[in-house]
Design goal:
Length: 317
């Protein structure tokens, strides 16, 4: 029995190596979207067991190299956190855009009583000022712009989640974590990232992947479809991007929310790997490595705690 399990494991690892090599050496079989069968292969393998096996194998190899050379693991942490930080810092501006757009909507609706808002060279504040430049304007009903505000909110939630995680900005319901020893905290962080974050983000990716494609192409695809079934569907496949809104003149690009859900799962998966590596390294290297290479935001008027000292006998008046 044990021998059979070992043989099955070794053969599975060998098959995964083969799949990775074959995908790299034959990119036209899944990246040439002019071929409908290649596109269906891309859709199938994007949420397949083979894809996740390849990701886990690469993660295992990188972890082994990092245990041998800690500098490799630290560089992995820095690169992954750099990606999340910069994407989050850019996406955070969507919050300001959402506020400004809401102000413009209220202003134009209450003051000018407009029903259509235009964006372009001839409409600097959403109100058409130069009729001759109408062909350069992007015009939509007021209801479209009001519903589109939800997209800004989704951008902030999905693309800033991993960034907020790095910055320590998430609200925590803490029953015992804060009061335990540092070593136990690191062990909890390691186990949490390995057995909670990575599996949960993998599950979200799986459902978000096919959920997104069901709103981009026809016929519909699902996680239960085999590769052979998808290749048969490729004969009648065509793009069918979802443009249906909740109201006749409302926002009609809800497929973007499906794309953002997938990006959320991908970014949080990468952050789970970075958090696992950071917790493991901080556990092995001691307190001096806490927050090492951590790129945290700091306001200019913030004073580090190290610069604040209250000597004994001082009184606060």
């Amino acid at each position: 029995m044990m021998i059979d399990l070992i043989v099955a494991f070794v053969s599975g690892v060998g098959q995964t190596f083969y799949n990775i090599g074959y995908a790299i050496s034959h990119p036209q079989l899944w990246l040439d979207w002019s071929d409908k069968q290649a596109m269906m292969r891309f859709i199938y393998y994007g949420g397949s067991f083979e894809f996740f096996s390849a990701v886990i194998l690469l993660f295992f190899i990188l972890t082994c190299i990092g245990l041998w050379r800690r500098s490799v693991m630290w560089w992995s942490v820095r690169i992954l956190e750099y990606i999340s930080n910069n994407i989050g810092r850019v996406a955070a501006w969507a919050g300001l855009a959402m506020v400004l757009q809401q102000i413009i909507i209220v202003f134009l609706q209450r003051i000018f009583r407009v029903s259509v808002i235009s964006v372009g060279p001839g409409a600097p504040l959403g109100y058409e000022l130069i009729p001759e430049w109408t062909f350069l304007l992007f015009s939509r009903d007021l209801a479209w712009w009001a519903e589109e505000l939800k997209l800004f909110n989704a951008i902030v939630v999905c693309l800033c989640c991993s960034y907020t995680f790095i910055q320590g900005g998430h609200v925590r319901v803490d029953l015992f974590y804060a009061g335990i020893a540092r070593r136990k905290k690191k062990i909890i962080d390691i186990l949490g990232s390995l057995f909670f974050m990575i599996p949960s983000m993998s599950l979200i990716w799986l459902y978000a992947w096919f959920f997104m494609w069901r709103h981009l192409i026809t016929p519909k695809v699902s996680a239960s479809d085999t590769l052979e079934a998808l290749l048969r569907k490729s004969r009648i496949m065509k793009w069918n991007v979802e443009t249906i809104g909740f109201s006749p003149s409302g926002f009609d690009a809800y497929f973007l929310f499906k794309v953002l859900l997938l990006l959320f799962a991908g970014l949080m998966f990468l952050q789970a790997i970075a958090f696992f590596y950071r917790s493991l390294l901080e556990l092995r290297e001691g307190e001096e490595s806490d927050n090492k290479f951590m790129d945290k935001d700091q306001l200019q008027n913030e004073i580090p705690d190290a610069h604040i000292s209250i000597s004994e006998g001082d009184q606060v008046r």
